[in-house]
Amino acid sequence: MSENQIPLDLEDGAVSIGGRPIVRGIDLRVGTGDFIALMGANGSGKSTLVRAITGLLPLTKGSLRLFGTPLDSFHAWHRIGFVPQRTGASSGVPASVWEVVASGRLTRRRLLRPLSRSDRDAIREAIEVVGLSEMAHDGVSQLSGGQQQRTLIARALAGEPDLFFLDEPTAGVDLPNQRALTDSLRQLKERGATIVLVAHELGPLRALVDRAVVMRDGRVAYDGLPLGDHEVHDAAFAEPHAHHHHLRQRGDHPARRDHAPNVASPLDRS
Amino acid sequence: MDLFDYGFMQRALLAALFTGLAAPAVGTYLVQRRMALMGDGIGHVAVTGVALGLLTGTSPTWTAVVVATLGAILIEVIRERGHTNGDVALALLFYGGLAGGVLLTGLGGQSAARLQEYLFGAITTISVSDVLITMALAAVVIVCCVGLAPQLFAVAHDQEFARVAGLNVRAYNLLIAVLAAVSVTVAMRTVGLLLVSALMVVPVATSQQLSRSFRTTLGAAMALGTIAPVGGLVISALVSEHATVAPGPAIVLLSLVGFVATWPIGIWLRHRATLRAPFLAVDPTAHETTDEHGHEHGPGCGHPAVEHGDHVDYIHDGHRHAPHGGHYDEH
Asked: Strand (E) positions, chain B?
């Protein structure tokens, strides 16, 4: 696992969910230090692609190498930082910002060992980068949506990864928080991190993006210099400038969560 | 009190103490996953296990451990494979387990009274070997729940993140299911299978009224968990000369009293936190001063002071008053 292997190399990748091909024919190479925005309309497959690259969904076709290692034999998960798409950082039991961020350090901790000094330093620094130091011991459910999103980014940071995946970190986040988020990501970029950002709209993040990959119906429709928000909504990318600002439902498979009451057998697998 | 010199009382106290420590420890993770009723589901399944033990003449504790563990794994598999939250699966197991248990007890010719010991607890009839088993199983549960707390917290908090962090999420999920099954059978003798979930969930619900972090929630839940069973047992022993108070329900009601006592405090704390959350650091559109203002705002003036950018706004009858020179601005 040498240091100069390229972080992400996907050749002819495809993902099927429940037998239906969702994402097909994706070639994606991301070099060290690149900041890539993966864009596209809702349902274009951008989140599905990231979930496949992070191993959450199986690739049905193609070869994927992370830092030069095929995904099947890849174990250096501490080099990957993941910010999943979710509406908040809270769960059924109170948890402080510090505790949520500390769980990101697990990638580098051994079982049953207490936190080392370097663990604590990394956690403190991650909280600093997202600007939540003063709230480190506050309950995460008391924070605003944008602050919770920043907590999730700090959690990914705590493991000191080289390659970041952020799935719609700015969705439903107000402008001041989007700016704070942009500042955090700028610091990451300056340190040489490789970043893959899934976004519907870039907003203030646009200044950081080196390259945009726009997806349309599960395929790459554009790969090049970043586009303005209005160009991404071009009809060629299957979106006649229609904004979707409602909160997405969790999961990105519309067929799985419909409006009809779901009383399928408990053992159904979609 | 001479009552505490009796062997059965000492055994009961030991069992209550260990149960009270173990049940809320697992319960915290179940509540975190929003699966507070899982303990109930496992408890119902364990009824079949107890009945199987009574039918075959083996130790009901061990058959209950085995059947409850199988039931818990089944619930976990259904939760993972299905796309419901597993509540339908839980319901199926609830009724199947209870019906199976009552049916088997009848087949074995055992009286309902024998089964009742397990349904509602009979802590004062616990034998020495049962106390030892309870202590050993409870110790295993406590060691796992506290020792693996960082991993279990991460998995319960965000499964997708935990998977990408390289944790074996399925193994940890199964571990929680098995630990829940074990603590259900541990608590079976103390409060009974039908009330077991109360010991796992109520202390957690109580402690999270007042805590902001996971660690204090877990610690306080375990502390409260020991108070309720020991306290309930002592109460039922002290009043035994005057009235028949079954220890199981006494324990559960005592822990509910704890919740009722802390609930209003929790509501007040959350209300205060919402009231004091800083306002968005945006300047007002125009400089607008208040009408004549006889009251002088300051620390302890009775109006909540809320951070707003580089100053504080005082909340006064639905207005936000910001001190500015000798007067107040409307913000």
From this structure: 305-308, 311-316, 319-324, 327-330
